[in-house]
Amino acid sequence: MRSHSPGVGDLSGSQARRIALAAQGFIDRRPAGEPTRTHLKRVIDRTRLLQMDSVNILARAHYLPAFSRLGSYDPDLLDRVAWRPTARRPRLLVEYWAHEAALIPVDDWPLFGWRMDEYRDGRYRHTREILQRNRSQANDVLAVIAESGPMMPRDIEEVLGVVRSKSERGSWWTRGEVKHLCEALFASGTLSAVRSEHFHRFYDLAERVVGPERLSVTVDRRDAHRELVARAAAAHGIATVADLADYYRLKAAEVREVVTDLVDVGVVQPVTVEGWDETGYLHRDARVPKTVDASALLSPFDPLVFFRPRTQRLFGFHYRIEIYVPAHKRIHGYYVLPYLMGEDLVARVDLKADRAAGVLRVLSAHVEPGVDRVEVARSLTADLAKLAHWRGLSAVDVIDKGELGPHLRAAATQ
Known about the structure:
Layout: E1 3-4, E2 10-11, H1 13-23, H2 37-47, E3 50-51, H3 64-70, H4 75-83, E4 93-98, E5 100-105, H5 113-118, H6 125-133, H7 135-148, H8 153-160, H9 177-187, E6 191-195, E7 201-205, H10 206-209, H11 212-215, H12 221-236, E8 238-239, H13 241-247, H14 252-264, E9 268-273, E10 280-283, E11 288-289, E12 295-297, H15 308-315, E13 336-341, E14 344-354, E15 359-367, H16 373-390, E16 395-398, H17 405-413
Parallel strand pairs: 2-9, 15-16
Antiparallel strand pairs: 1-11, 3-5, 4-5, 6-7, 8-10, 9-10, 12-13, 13-14, 14-15
Helix pairs in contact: 2-3, 6-9, 12-13, 12-14, 13-14, 16-17
């Protein structure tokens, strides 16, 4: 695909979209055969992180971005690079609080040392309170893990003889406190974690997961912020301060403190973008492809769309996840995926993998104003079939709900 390097100056909204899509890997050529570790690493190099979420009505969130960019791939490939490394194929990813719970490149671990310092007693108030009154017990938890290896909280409780009966609630070993202690130690960077095939978190000493060579690296807070903002800028291609701040959940003031440094050394350059009220920062490696020839179903937590104000600004696409909205108040559905076609988000579908029946259920399908419904339905039908195949489902069933539903049903019969 032909592209050219942008320079300082005004950018159209279309150019900004194409820059963002290129930065996120949507113009990269998909592998001709089975995607490999190298292909997955290319996706990670683009996105810089994979947000995690436990909802499994379709697929857990961290698996979907690679599918959106590579097509059908073996999810076990991601499991191996995150949780089952070998001497020949070392760990690529580790879990930490980046953009919420996320998988990040293991080499980026030292860049979060300042956040681990902030979370040295835990991320949440209740967890901090539990740790503060049970520090010696936290040492007991660490001793058990050090001796026995990766463990779930309930296994640690068993080793420590935690009493769960109502009559023992006055004890410090009340149910759930071990989990809170593990979470506090995880947030502080003392513990890390690996996941089972069922997504259960097993806590382990950070030095065994991340490696002592990374734990020994200390990065100054401002230097770390500068590096994280540079990574966010590369992942976005073009971004406002708010966009840059959201990627790693920094404060806007913290971004402003370092973005001028990045301008001074030429990592980013300020530009104006049509329709944007704020300055955009263009990464030096950003490309403006002439066109974007892509189509993809996107996780609600895909880095392209997880910051909803940016999604609205870039694509004119108002998007809110409705998982926590009562069913009768939902507008589009429970687990709704935006649909990318070309450089636009043109539709959204509420999907459910009915594993017992072997069917991908399309519970509702809505299209954006002004797009060709027949063309969207034809493209989306093909991508739904690919998604079903990837999830091991043999058919796609479209429920006639939403204005795109009838067109999807018609396209499926052609």
